[in-house]
């Protein structure tokens, strides 16, 4: 089916801002050439505009009931303030991971307001499948409530105009889920401890692995790539800094050492493994692995696989670099690293195919559903981690109300945010280059030491150079990898 791309005719009276570091300069929104762009104008718009109709909203299945209740509260409040406000809201479930595909296939069949991970914003904005926000109070809320990283990735640049397209309302990060029957809380703090627990479970008939991931893609297996010094949070890794396609760096000495650690840990009898053809859930049930690194959206499946009372939750563990890990680098053996994560947010976006008459009311609804108060209630009602800055204080304040399991789940993700970066894909090009042009496969080739060809420091350096080249150019180098590495692209 041909994609239907409808875009509302909006006033775009823009004010020049001059040169800005994360500027776009072309329709890709991120050429890294230092071009100028302009900000989309915002206006003082009514929270309860005149009009009628039904606004549809897509959220995750687990959140439908709560957000329907919240939307009904918004409708009641708007009607109380304006007798000419006659909008209704219907909340439905839709897998947020599939939103971008649904929108690209035919956005006229999608809800008026949809939930999508922030890294889809650039792609959907450039294809003009979602509308920018022009309500000043909504723009202000997004700016003032959120961490700077979330505020920035809520934007995209289209036709040299920079605008906010999404309002963060759920945060997410990778963390560790482990089987408490076999792994102690102390062992779960380190990858060495997980290996110890797995070794204790192993028999002559079954070699138990310490940890697996839910996928070998660039997101679910990102923890060694994004690892940081546990004490200082230092990392040389740069991925599209300030949205600049040319500002990447994957070849740091720490990145080489982290990759060599992952290769060693994968090769060890009780170390890292990939999910079998049966799936990681079956691997858990069969006792072949004692923990996984994944996101909160995998929590219920994990609990179902081993039993909810057996679930332990913690941050992604630390690991200590050995002499073998730092071989051929300037890194120091004994350095403690912590696995990193993409600390992301899910956002509410407005479908460009939605009727123009709903536009102001939709922005008012988005603003309401993404307020701190609603995010806090969503944590209690459906385990959604708040996205706003300072949410950890609220999490701590309601520890007893949440209960140990919910509290641990929220705290692990919130703590991991300090060791993470938001996916910096302000447009679809960057998203595609990072994920879809072969770089994740190259990384796993070194981890696996495929065909015995990638077991050296030289091989690790060459792969990291090729990955950076793909991130910046969208393809493998056409010429031989330089003999002297590291080298800028």
Q: Give the structural class.
A: alpha/beta
Number of beta-strand segments: 20
CATH class of the largest domain: Alpha Beta
Poorly predicted segments: 1-34
Large-scale geometry: globular
Number of individual domains: 2
Examine the coordinates and then state which fold CATH places here, giving the name of the CATH topology of the largest domain. D-Maltodextrin-Binding Protein, domain 2
Mean pLDDT: 91
Terminal Cα separation, in Å? 39 Å
Share of residues in helices: 25-40%
Strand order of the largest sheet: 13-11-14-10-15
Q: What's the short version?
A:
This protein is of the alpha/beta class and 489 residues long.
Characterization of the model:
By secondary structure, the protein is of the alpha/beta class. It folds into 2 domains: 15-170 and 344-410, 3-Layer(aba) Sandwich (D-Maltodextrin-Binding Protein, domain 2), CATH 3.40.190.10; 175-342, D-Maltodextrin-Binding Protein, domain 2 (3-Layer(aba) Sandwich). Helices cover 36% and strands 18% of the residues. The protein is built from 18 helices and 20 strands. The strands form 6 sheets. A 5-stranded mixed sheet has the order 13-11-14-10-15. Strands 1-2-8-7 form a 4-stranded mixed sheet. Strands 5, 6, 9 and 19 form a 4-stranded antiparallel sheet that branches. The two termini are 39 Å apart.
Write the layout of secondary structure elements.
Layout: E1 15-19, E2 36-39, E3 51-59, H1 64-81, E4 85-93, H2 99-106, E5 113-117, H3 121-126, E6 130-131, H4 136-145, H5 148-153, E7 155-158, E8 161-164, E9 166-172, E10 175-179, H6 191-201, E11 211-213, E12 228-229, H7 253-267, E13 272-273, H8 280-285, E14 291-294, H9 299-306, E15 311-314, E16 318-320, H10 323-326, E17 336-338, E18 341-342, E19 344-351, H11 359-369, H12 372-382, H13 391-397, H14 399-402, H15 404-416, E20 420-421, H16 428-436, H17 439-448, H18 457-473
Parallel strand pairs: 2-8, 3-4, 11-13, 11-14, 18-20
Antiparallel strand pairs: 1-2, 5-19, 6-19, 7-8, 9-19, 10-14, 10-15, 12-17, 16-17
């Amino acid at each position: 089916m041909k994609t239907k791309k409808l875009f509302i005719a909006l006033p775009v009276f823009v004010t020049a801002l001059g040169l800005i570091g994360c500027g776009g300069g072309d329709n890709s929104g991120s050429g890294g050439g230092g071009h100028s762009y302009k900000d989309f104008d915002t206006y003082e718009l009514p929270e309860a505009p005149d009009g009628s109709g039904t606004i549809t909203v897509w959220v995750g299945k687990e959140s439908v009931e709560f957000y329907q209740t919240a939307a009904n509260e918004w409708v009641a409040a708007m009607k109380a303030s304006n007798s000419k406000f006659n909008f209704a809201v219907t909340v439905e479930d839709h897998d947020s991971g599939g939103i971008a595909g649904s929108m690209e296939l035919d956005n006229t069949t999608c809800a008026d307001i949809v939930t999508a991970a922030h890294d889809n914003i650039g792609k959907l904005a450039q294809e003009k499948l979602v509308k920018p926000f022009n309500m000043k109070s909504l723009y202000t809320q997004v700016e003032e409530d959120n961490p700077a990283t979330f505020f920035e990735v809520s934007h995209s640049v289209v036709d040299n105009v920079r605008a906010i397209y999404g309002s963060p309302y759920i945060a997410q990060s990778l963390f560790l889920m482990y089987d408490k029957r076999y792994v102690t809380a102390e062992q779960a703090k380190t990858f060495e401890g997980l290996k110890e627990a797995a070794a204790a479970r192993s028999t002559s008939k079954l070699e138990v692995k310490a940890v697996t991931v839910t996928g070998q893609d660039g997101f679910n297996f990102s923890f060694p790539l994004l690892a940081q010094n546990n004490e200082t949070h230092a990392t040389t890794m740069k991925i599209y800094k300030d949205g600049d396609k040319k500002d990447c760096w994957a070849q740091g000495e720490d990145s080489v050492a982290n990759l060599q650690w992952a290769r060693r840990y994968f090769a060890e009898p009780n170390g890292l493994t990939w999910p079998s053809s049966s799936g990681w859930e079956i691997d858990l049930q069969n006792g072949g692995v004692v923990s996984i690194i994944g996101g909160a959206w995998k929590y219920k499946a994990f609990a179902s696989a081993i039993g909810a009372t057996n679930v332990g939750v913690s941050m992604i563990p630390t690991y200590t670099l050995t002499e073998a890990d730092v071989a051929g680098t300037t890194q120091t053996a004994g350095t403690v690293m912590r696995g990193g994560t993409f600390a992301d947010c899910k956002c509410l976006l407005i479908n460009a195919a939605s009727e123009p008459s709903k536009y102001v009311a939709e922005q008012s609804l988005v603003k309401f559903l993404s307020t701190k108060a609603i995010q806090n209630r969503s944590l209690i009602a459906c385990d959604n981690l708040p996205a706003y800055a300072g949410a950890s204080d609220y999490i701590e304040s309601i520890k007893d109300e949440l209960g140990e399991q919910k509290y641990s789940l929220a705290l692990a993700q919130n703590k991991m945010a300090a060791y993470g970066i938001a996916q910096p894909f302000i447009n679809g090009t960057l998203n595609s280059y990072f994920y879809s042009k072969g770089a994740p496969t190259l990384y796993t080739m070194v981890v696996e030491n495929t065909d015995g060809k990638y077991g050296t420091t030289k091989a690790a350096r060459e792969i990291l150079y090729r990955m950076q080249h793909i991130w910046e150019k969208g393809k493998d180098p056409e010429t031989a990898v330089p003999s002297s590495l590291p080298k800028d692209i």
